[in-house]
Each structure stands twice: as structure tokens, then as C-alpha cells.
Amino acid sequence: MIIVLGASGFIGTYLVDELLDQGYELTITGRNMDALAYFQEHNIPMLNVDISKADDLNKLPTDDIEAVVLMAGLLPANVKDYNPYDYVKINIEGTINVLEYCRKNNIKKIISTTTYADVQKLWEKDKAITEAAARDFYYTGDHAMYVISKNAASDIIEHYDQEYGITGIVFRLPPVYGFGPHGAIYVDGKYNKSGIQTFIDNAIDGKPIEIWGNGTISRDVVYVKDVVNALVLAIQSDKAQGLYNITSGQAVSLEEQVRSVIEVFSRPDKQSEIVFRPEKENNSASFIFDINKAKNDFAYEPKYLPFKKMLEDHKQEMESGRFNFLSKRAEK
Fold first, then answer.
1. Cα(22)–Cα(322) distance, rounded to whole angstroms?
2. C-alpha dihedral over 305, 310, 311, 316, to 10 degrees?
3. Which end of the chain has the least Cβ crowding within 10 Å, N or C?
4. Is the distance from CB of 221 to CB of 247 less than 8 angstroms?
5. H/E element holding 197?
6. What gap in Å lies between CA 318 and CA 327, rounded to an integer?
7. Rounded to whole angstroms, how far apart are CA atoms 199 and 45?
8. Which fold has domain 2-178+222-248+286-306+322-331?
9. In whole angstroms, what is the distance from residue 42 CA to residue 44 CA?
10. Other CB atoms within 10 A of residue 195 CB
11. Phi, psi dihedrals of residue 260, rounded to the nearest 5°
């Protein structure tokens, strides 16, 4: 059995879908009630478990657990009212509670995630960052406590690995693209439509799309189904252990993103025009990550490349309507 904590979130929903297709027995937890009907259709009860409360973990099964996938956590994109204690309570104490559940029930594998911002000061165009690079991040901004809490959680997972023999696997994720809840996100507590969603909406409507600042800024993003594939491979692997960069391994420029969005989402009779606005501030920075460790250890290979292929599948999922409950969450 695989336990997925945070199964009703963006990546968790796609992961459950794939694990079902592969015939796994699952126990899942989630707090997004819009997802309940979807999971009920697949005869999977969704438990409501608050990982920050140790006793809540007693709701979970204790026998024949192959792995725990910890997707539950607090992200700045979902935070309206900033409270540093929430990051400690959920991301740090919650991780300890899950690890204690694993230790007490002899569960030997846990997979979790961390943020690419843990090496933000190392970001540089065309210079791939490896897992061996020392952390170097900013102690200011709305992501600071998130990064600190995820760093601590990753270190605690490593402690339980070395102290108790629970194999700890941590995926460092960049922006994860795909149809889901992050069409709009909180930035410094303010709810705004994300950049990629703005591009998509304008392309659908045939409106001009503005590129602010330097259009050659390039970012290494990843598609949600590639992340899911990596999670499944790590579950099945006897070699996977430690930190892994799970990205596309390729950087796509801002201009290339916009041109791909127009190609995929614009109507043939009403193509969006690109308007370059170099005078407008754009705080994005270039970055790229090395994914060879994941390739070597468990044969991870991104399938949704080039960037246009991510968008084509995004559009297909959007039009299918099967995960509409994820977009409903974004509208709240």
C-alpha cells in the first residue's frame, strides 16, 4: 500500500490518478472537499488528517505500507495572512509527526518535496545547479520562512534516514506547470493571477500579450506529470535516496513561453500579438538545474518536452474537465 498525504492538492491528485492506473492500493488524505466526489468515484476514501497533530496520524493504516508520499504542506502561494508559526507547525512539526508514524510502524520509505529557492542566490543563466551545491537563499521576502521550514524538514528527513534507516527521498521542485489550482496565487498576501495563466487567458481571448523586462530570461520549469512519473519511479526504486532535482533540465525563455502559449491556445482566426515592454519591471531571474542524479538513480526522463508539449497536455486536461475541482480551488 502507498499512503499519499495531501492527495487532494495539485500534484497529489495527478499522482493518485497515476497510481490507480498502475494498480496500487492506496490510502489518501486531503482537505480539499471539492476533490471528494472525484475520489469517491474511484472508491478511495479520503481521510481528513492534519499532519501538525500527531494523534491525527493514528487514523492511518499501520500494516504493509510500502511508502509514504508527503505532499501535504504550507506554501506561500496559498497564504493570505502571513504567520511564521504556521510554517513551523505544518512543514516542520508535521514532517516530524509523519516520520514518527513511519518509525513506529516500520515504514521504510518516505518521499517529500522542497523548494528550488533554497539555492536562489546561485541562480544563473545557463549554469546548471547540482544537488551537491550548498544552500544559498534569501532571508527576506514572503518565501523566506517557507524556505527555512522546508530546509529544516529536509534535514529532519535525513536525520531519520541515518538514525532509523527510513529511506528519505526529497524532490527539489521548480515551478510545476499543468492544469490545476495555481492559475492565481498569493504574493505577499495579495491574490493575483499567475503569469502563465495571464498568457493563456489572453491567448484564448485573442488579446495582446505583454512581455515585461528581458524576454530572454530563461527558467527551468517542469510539468506535473513528469513530477508524478518521478514519484512513481522513486517509489519503485531500491537506489533512490536523498535530494534530487526534479525539473525538465532545460530552460525556456520568457519569449518562447509566450510564443508557445499563442500557438497552443489562440484561435486560428484571432492570434494574440506579442507586445515587448522592456521598460516594465520583471523580477524573474534565469535558472536551470542538473537532473543527472535522478536519471542515473531511477531513470527519470522528462517526457513533456519541449515546452509546447506541456501546454498541449495542459489544454487537453483543461478541456477534459476531469480535474475541474482543482481550478475551483484557485477561484476561492
1. 19
2. 130
3. C
4. yes
5. helix 195-205
6. 9
7. 37
8. Rossmann fold (3.40.50)
9. 6
10. 16
11. -70, -40
In degrees, rounded to 5, the angle at the alpha carbon of residue 72 between the alpha carbons of residues 41 and 182 is: 80
**139-198 residue pLDDT tens:** 999 899 999 999 999 999 999 999 999 999 999 999 999 998 766 555 566 656 788 989
Q: Note whether 304 and 221 are within 8 A (CB).
A: no
- Give the position of cell 472508491: 43
Concatenate the DSSP letters of all residues of 18-60 into one string. HHHHTT--EEEE---GGGHHHHHHTT--EE---TTSGGGGGGS
Q: Which amino acid is it at 165?
A: G
CA atoms within 13 A on the CB side of 199: 20
**pLDDT tens for residues 104-120?**
999 999 999 999 999 99
CA distance 329 to 7: 14
Residue/partner pairs of 309-313 with CB below 8 Å, 24 or more apart:
309/223, 310/177, 310/178, 310/221, 310/223, 311/260, 311/261, 311/264, 311/265, 312/264, 313/178, 313/223, 313/225
Give the mean pLDDT of the chain: 93
**Single-letter amino acid code for the residue at 225:** K
Residue with cell 482566426: 269
Q: Cell 542538473 maps to which residue?
A: 290
Query: What does residue 62 show for φ and ψ, rounded to 5 degrees?
Result: -125, -5
C-alpha cell at 100: 514518527
- End-to-end Cα separation, the chain, in angstroms: 33
Domain range summary for the chain, segments of one domain joined by +: 2-178+222-248+286-306+322-331
User: Grid coordinates standing for 3?
Assistant: 499512503
d(CA 15, CA 30): 13
Type and span of the H or E element at 69: strand 67-70
Is residue 29 within 8 Å of residue 4, measured between CB atoms?
yes
Spatial CB neighbours of 18, under 8 Å, sequence gap ≥ 6: 225, 228, 229, 232
Cα 317 from chain centroid (whole Å): 17
